[in-house]
Amino acid sequence: MITIDILKKLKESEDKVEFKKGERGNISYDGGSKPKPSDRRRCILGYVTALCNEEGGLLVIGMSDNYPHEVIGTNQNLNSIGELESNIYRDTGIRPKVFELYENLKRVLVIEVPSRPAGKVFKFEDVALMRVGEELKPMSDEVYLKIIQEHEPDFSQQFCEDLNVSDLDEKAISILKDKYSLKQNNPSFKTLSNEQLLSDLDLSKNGKLTNAALVLLAKKEVLNEKLPQAAVMLEYRNSENQIPFDNRIVFSEPFFILIDELWNTINLRNGSFPIQDGAYIFNIPFFNEEVIRESINNAITHRDYRKTSEIVVKQFPQRLDIINAGGFPIGVNLENLLKTPSTPRNRLLADVLQKTGIVERSGQGVDKIFYNTLIEGKAEPDYSKSDCFQVNLKLSAIIEDRAFALFIVAVQEELPESEKLSVLEVITLNMIKRGATKNNLDAEIVSKLLDKKFIEKRGKTNAVYYILSKDYYEFTDEKAKYYNLQELDESQVLNTILQFLSNESKAKMKDFVGLFEDKLSRKQVRFRVDKFVSNKILEQQGDGSTSTYKLSDNYIKQIEVISQAINIGMKEMEKKQRQQIEKTKERPKKDQ
């Protein structure tokens, strides 16, 4: 915990601290309007960026920079430190901690800057910054190249000082033996000594135990002492808008004990939705066990144990969030999350979990999370709040589309193993069902789904779009919706325009384009409108963007003539019907 006394003894270069007096609260946030870049970057955002590139540090405002540092006091961001913290994250992507300290009523503002992730460089005004004495300078090519070529060290493979076999939990070791024996079909593994087991799994080398052994097997009290951030915090809230938690439980057991206890505790508040499929009724749980276990396994395997924050699981009645420190592994981001095989941040730990059947091979965990969520008709797992410093996964319990879930399950049951839909294909089907445009879809996956006849192509050129196959709408008993999604022909376009003009009298081209959004491109709409103008159905007034359209007088007259002819015809038909009725009434009289 940082205190004023500790700050007074810190040295700027050695301890990665930047001291600023700022007694009047006049430290610029972003450099303002200063013309020289070297002056602009001497601001809060500039120092935060440089400190982050230095692997973290402190920006202290309200103390002198002469050693020992005297408390001056500052009004910098008085009553707005929460806003400052949010603004820094918004403008840099860096997650700082901002807090206040006091000495004799003199206020000191401290901005605690986290370390950059391995291989990541942060920039201010598109310039990577580094501190050089009192200056903030553009990062040298040598330093920049060194950073971007970094690889994350495998924390789990490093040795844990003073950790002994006697510090390990016998129950956790027994569980590991059972799971390994079952997964590898090797019953004799259970008979190995603890020392041999640890050596065979590379959890120890030359008698030294690794951090992976600590996380997976160490006794609770040992783990708390040596690596307290390995704990998992489970917080329960009755409302998603609620800030304070109603209940909080800390799980700090070794992994092989923790994972079951954590799931069992989550499951105590787990409800379910009843689903009826014909005469058969079954329940879909709010929280799917495989999804939750896999999500927590991922957090434990991929998290950065050098960060002092624990994994936090926030459980709500119909949502569950899992937050872990460290961000995505190098090379993985929101866009390629499902396409790029991930390299575990803790390779040794991941290897042991794979060998014991806890997780599948690397990279499949997220696939399972998405697949099992979507086939239950729930919203896609949401990683959108993740960044370079943490992974934030939100899982919704609400079933949004029961019919889609049942359709996918039915399809998968009919397909041979080699042709079953992949998770990316299921995601694409879900996107198409929700009306995703062509540009937001993966062309290769779309091509496969077209070949398999699970989707159909509609429209032409820039107005191409896709719909689910007729089989889906037959399965969901929505045939009318399927035919409503068919490609528009010229008569349908004309009828839609006529209906619009019967209410509005005049229209602009953008009005027509809006009528056929996602069905026809602007070019296709203009082609049809120009054709209606040349056929004298529509009349164009004005040129260019100011043009307006209305029904032409000739067309209105034609409609009126047709309407009159129809009225005459109807009257004639009514007259003939009356005459026929009269004749029918007269026949019995003649027979008499």
Walk me through what this model shows.
With 592 residues, the protein is an alpha+beta fold. The chain has four domains: 4-148, 2-Layer Sandwich (Methyltransferase, Cobalt-precorrin-4 Transmethylase, Domain 2), CATH 3.30.950; 165-273 and 280-395, Heat Shock Protein 90, CATH 3.30.565; 403-484, Arc Repressor Mutant, subunit A (Orthogonal Bundle); 490-551, Arc Repressor Mutant, subunit A, CATH 1.10.10.10. The protein has 22 helices and 20 strands. Strands 11-10-14-15-16 form a five-stranded mixed beta sheet, covered by helices on one side. The radius of gyration is 34 Å and the shape is extended.
Outline the fold blueprint.
Elements: H1 4-9, E1 17-20, H2 37-40, H3 44-53, E2 57-61, H4 81-92, E3 97-103, E4 106-113, E5 123-124, E6 127-132, E7 135-138, H5 141-148, H6 170-184, H7 194-200, E8 204-205, E9 208-209, H8 211-217, H9 220-226, E10 232-236, E11 247-251, H10 255-267, E12 272-277, E13 280-285, H11 289-302, E14 311-316, E15 319-325, H12 347-355, H13 365-374, E16 390-396, H14 402-414, H15 423-433, H16 443-451, E17 455-458, E18 465-468, H17 470-475, H18 479-484, H19 490-504, H20 509-515, H21 522-534, E19 538-541, E20 548-551, H22 553-591
Parallel strand pairs: 1-2, 10-14
Antiparallel strand pairs: 2-4, 3-4, 5-6, 6-7, 8-9, 10-11, 12-13, 14-15, 15-16, 17-18, 19-20
Helix pairs in contact: 11-13, 13-15, 15-16, 20-21
